[in-house]
Amino acid sequence: MALSSPGTGAGPGSGSDFGTHTGAGTNTSSGTTVGSGTTAGADTSTGADTTTGAATNTGAGPGSPVAPRPTRGLLPLLLLGNSAMYALYAGVAGMLLALQIEAIDPADKVANFGLVAGVSAIFATVFNPVAGALSDRSGRRNPWILAGGLLAVPVMLLLGSVHTVLLVTIAWCLGQAVMNVYQAAITSVVPDRVPVASRGKASAAVGLGLPIGSTLGALVGAAFSEDYRTGYLVFGAIVAVTSVVFTSLAREERMPPRPPLPVRQQVAAFGSALGDHDFRWAFIGRALLVLGYFAVSGFQLYILKDHTDLPAGLSAEEAVAVLMPVNSVAMVVSTVLGGWLSDRFDRRKLFVGASAALAAVALVVPALSSSWPAMLVFSVVNGLGFGCYMAVDTALVTMVLPAAEDAARDMGVLNVANAGPQIVAPFVASAVVSIGGGYTPLFIVAAVLSVLGALAVRPIRSVR
Questions:
Q1: What are phi and psi for residue 8, nearest 5 degrees?
Q2: Res 32: pLDDT
Q3: Distance in angstroms (rounded) separating the CA atoms of residues 438 and 436
């Protein structure tokens, strides 16, 4: 996983938490910061992934004259809390779960992993609005952060103790549930407690949690690859300890309870937003690129085991621990640089299209060569392409929103383009690998999807 979903922004020091993580779970978030820190839309967390309904609050929030001052040191706490969350997503869904499924049924590991990943992603997407509504209705975030974090330990213990694909699926769905409770609440801390003028820095802190957490998750996962049961407990403990630290140090005042948006209104909002020409094409482009990206990243461990010619003495688990930091650094660099350059030249479509095309080029490399150097090149180039794409595309989307007064709603609609493909990706990937007889066809299909994603921005008229 190269998750997804990095914290992206349209300029240096800005961030849009597109927290997309999959492998077997998704999370998306659209608190969007444009340029050098002007927040557009609203932070919406979706774990697996989609959290709706846990974004903004009315009443005495940070934008209100009576808003409480944010806790001193809140930004480092946000970085810590999000890093722990992404570490679990990367280490569990990206490595330990794949190893466990392989141990249960080596012959059908690809199909089984695709099934577990897809089913749990669907569950997380359905459950996430429930998790968001829980904290919204209570007007509190800290109790839900603490509850989700502490419950991660027994759920990870359960996950490590089961021995059938069915029970793994059930246990990981429970894992998604508790992590969605944690994620929905911690993502809402930014709009709840951070003044608008400081949202850029806060979003950057949240966004940096992805590369840091992903790297930590890969390293810990590799360290416990021979004992995944203990590895599960370590990840559960990381989240649990982090939840205690965060809730102990981050002061909270009760917010006015917010009723959930009725399903009928959500469906109507979805159709209304996609009726806009430019927004529809931005939505299509995002969905195509995310689908191609996660179809490959979710199966990274199996690709290294079954497709890549690794150097003598380097295991697939150790290779993941090498590739993840490389990819994360490339993603951070391109996120900042791409956002800055697009601001400097006032061009969005050019950078979005070029970065999507670059991601396609990256995917061709391991399709042509199964060598270890080819995977290193793929990891760097893919990180550069995807990081730049998410940074500039997020800015582009904020410029094509159908109506300013519905910005938060429409950014929530965009989350479907983030989370939906992550649900489909495991099924698509396992089918392509099974039918195509290997991973080369998967790289080609993903490259084609990236090219289509690049072309999808061409019909957009209102942005250069």
A1: -120, 155
A2: 35
A3: 6
Q: How far apart are CA 414 and CA 408, in angstroms?
A: 10
Residue 168: CB partners within 8 Å, gap ≥ 6?
97, 100, 101, 104, 116, 159, 162
Q: Could you tell me how many residues make up the chain?
A: 464
Residue 212 CA neighbour count, 13 Å, CB half? 16
The DSSP letter of residue 348 is S
Collect all residues with Cβ–Cβ distance below 8 Å to 209 and sequence separation of at least 6.
7, 19, 78, 79, 81, 82, 83, 85, 86
CA dist 205 and 40 (Å) reads 17
Pairing of strands 28-29, 45-46: antiparallel
Q: How many CA atoms lie within 13 A of 105 on its CB side?
A: 12
How many angstroms separate the Cα of 284 from the Cα of each of 58, 277, 456? Answer: 32, 11, 7
**Under-50 pLDDT residues of the chain:** 1-68
What pLDDT is stored for residue 194 in this prediction? Answer: 77
Q: Mind listing the pLDDT tens digit for each residue in 364-374?
A: 999 999 999 99
Which neighbouring-strand residues pair with 38?
Answer: 34
Report which DSSP code applies to 371. Answer: B
